[in-house]
Amino acid sequence: MLTDVFFRRYEKRPMFDAVGQRESTLFVQAYRIVNEQIWTYYGYDKKVDESVKAIWTSIHDHLSMEIGVKELSPKWYSYQTEWMGKPITNSGWCNMNSVVEQWLNVKFAPEKMDADAFVKRRLSFIELAFRTREEQVRAANEKLPGVLQQAAIQDHLAKMKTTGIRLPGSRVDGVKAANESLNAAFQANVHELNQRFKQAGMPLHYHNGFIQIAQDEQVQAQIEQPFWNLVKDPQWKNVSIDMAEAIDLRDTGGRDPSFYAAKALESTIKIICTIKGWEKGNEKGVSDYLNHLESKANGAFIEGWERQSMQRFYSDVRNDLGHGPGSKDMPNFTPQQIDQTIDFCMSWVKSLIMRL
To answer: Which of these, 52, 105, 116, 210, is most buried using a 10 Å CB contact count?
Structure first.
């Protein structure tokens, strides 16, 4: 199965010409975040947590498949010692987190691989690990309503008991607190990773399962990060996917990144109409959905001038990209225009979602 990895998305864009102390430090720090803060390989009984071992194995196997090797570093160890004057061989299997650690922190050898590929492959491990954890957190959030319902039933039954030991506290409150702690811990991990990128002088940013290039720090703080925070919910999945594609294409010189940014905004408009119950089923394009948002009968979700702004964007920008030009010249935006269209769509997505 194919896995989306950082080094393949950015293989055509050179980013690193050396592997120095800052890069090596980042690899150690990222490994410790994953191994000590996200998943603890050993349980309280000092035995390997098999569920955590399975996670590390999955990450290792996916990444090694994409790189094209059987193992990132040797899984089997063997060395010679002596016992009572006789040579003996000690051997066994390495723990999977150690297999990854040895590969992640191996000394860079320029005669074997260029610096750019070396760093990007290790960033791919970080991306896969954080993406895996984010998927776990998302799954827990999706299950939360059902777990709360069961907890409420247990609380109700506990109140009805007239004999026996009753534990203090509400199970519902406990479930909520545990879920809030799970989300807060992961957000703290993400924040730390992004700060570590800054310390290493890497213009990178992790969000919603991907490491991507962070350009303007002010835009990142005021537009991009709030955008990624808002589209974490599963109902905005397509918005997140298309905007991530737009940024990848922009950063690697791919075709039509503005088209994917426009798709993300259009999906947002349609989803809001569905959530509000305004969708009629006979809409022919984004213009009809904008009609729903502007309609006074629907409470004027957007004003007329706001509708004109988005309508003009789709008429003048998206339509040129979304249709074949025939014998005319292929639409070609400047880097500044591409940045502006992506920022425009991100800002509108953020604004529209925050009105719900």
So the answer is: 210
Q: Name the region of 172 (left: φ>0; alpha: ψ -120 to 50; beta: rest).
A: alpha
User: Looking at the predicted structure, is the pLDDT value of residue 129 above 60?
Assistant: yes
Q: Burial-class residue 176 by CB neighbours within 10 Å (0-12, 13-18, 19+).
A: middle
Alpha-carbon gap, residue 100 to 57, rounded angstroms: 9
Give the predicted TM-score (pTM) of the model.
0.83
Q: Which CA distances in Å does 85 have to 43, 82, 166, 204, 234?
A: 37, 6, 64, 55, 64
pLDDT tens digits for range 236-262: 999 999 999 999 999 998 888 998 999
Q: Is the dihedral of CA 249, 235, 60, 204 positive or negative?
A: positive
Asked if 128 contacts 63 with a C-beta cutoff of 8 angstroms, the reply is yes
Residue 169 DSSP label: S
Q: Domains along the chain?
A: 6-214 (no CATH), 215-356 (1.20.120)
Spatial distance between the Cα atoms of 218 and 223, rounded to a whole number of angstroms: 8
| Strand partners of residue 92 | 77
Q: Indicate the helix (H) or strand (E) that contains 329.
A: none
Residue range 319-343, pLDDT digits in tens = 655 544 444 555 678 889 999 999 9
